[in-house]
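Researcher: Following up on the earlier apo prediction. This time include the ligand. It's pyridoxal-5'-phosphate, with the SMILES given after the sequence.
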Amino acid sequence: MTTVLRPATLPVRNAAPVISFDRARELAAEFGTPTLAVSRSKLQSVYREMKSSLPDVDLFYAAKANSDVSILRTLFLEGSFVDVCSYREMQSALLAGFSPEQMIHTHPCKTADNTKSCYQEGLRWFTFDCEAEIDKIRRNAPDTKALLRLRADSQSSLINLSAKFGCAVSEAPALARAAIRRGLDVRALSFHVGSQCTNPEDFRSMLIRTREVWDECVAAGCQLEMLDVGGGFPAPYRTSVLPLGDYCRHLARALDATFGDLDIRIIAEPGRGLCAESVTLVTRVLGKSVRNGLPWYFIDDGVYGSFSGKLFDHADFGIVAEAADMRPRSACVLAGPTCDSHDVVAVDQELPDLEIGELLLVPTMGAYSSASASGFNGLDIARLVEVD
Ligand SMILES: Cc1ncc(COP(=O)(O)O)c(C=O)c1O
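Model: Understood. Below is the ligand-bound prediction.
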């Protein structure tokens, strides 16, 4: 039975901006809006806390969450490794200082070109989860080590990444045998419990199942040397989450109970859990109106920009207005700057009567926000600015 860890009875981790409104005004004056303020010190402290509560796990930052070179560079300097899914992500990681030996490629279904380019650049770990991928890796990335990705069913994750990827646990030993027969050197098992996994018990359930598969794969002839527990570490949005240290220590105990007897390398691929909190959006109110009796505020970033995470990532971003506690607040609609009526970023948050020109802050904007922004309507994407 799954134990539910209830944030209400435990300390929690809440979303908070990395800058004050005074600093936001300085940034807006210098760089304009929308601007994404990146706090290196926040990123460093999150990395250090995750690493110190998972001391035996090598952290491979999932560059897909945010492949901005300054973020990658900060994590590189902290001693992180990196997980890439494409040649372009690999190039950003190289630019930030990572060497190919510090990278794994985690895309289970990639193009031949993607595979070949990363291989030629020196990457040597590739992921597969089905028969078709075996020959692709063999042809385009010979003499490499392979991670076999398993499907994970998680109860508490906001985004189920196993709907699309991962071999069924029951089919994994047969797939491993087929891979070995066809010359693929299967050296690791991996899984992803799903993104924004709020209950670390989901890791424990998956680890128990993975250990069974591990033993079967070893019996089938795989020389397994590495376990990759993927990402899923949550970040606080409008809903708080467990404190990072508590969450990671829970995982560390589960790892110890399930794989503690083996002398293997254990790695994780956190994306959001590392970078989300270190970025705060500074956006400006550019217009206002009343529709059907409800105030509408139009801001200069929206779902085609940094709020793309609202659509693709189901993120529920909290909007922070200055001195909001001292001003009467009411229900309102906050809309983005494009002509699309779909471009609405909040309908259920109470805000003060906002002035045109007023700045708003949006915390937890570091992951899957600028990464999936587009320049629709010819509007600029928010620029990232390091603030400390
Ligand atoms: C293969 C893989 N690894 C790691 C991640 C990062 O996940 P998260 O940001 O939830 O930690 C993802 C997210 O899509 C992924 O697909």
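Model: Residues 201-219 form the longest helix (19 residues).
Researcher: Noted. I'll compare it with the apo version next.
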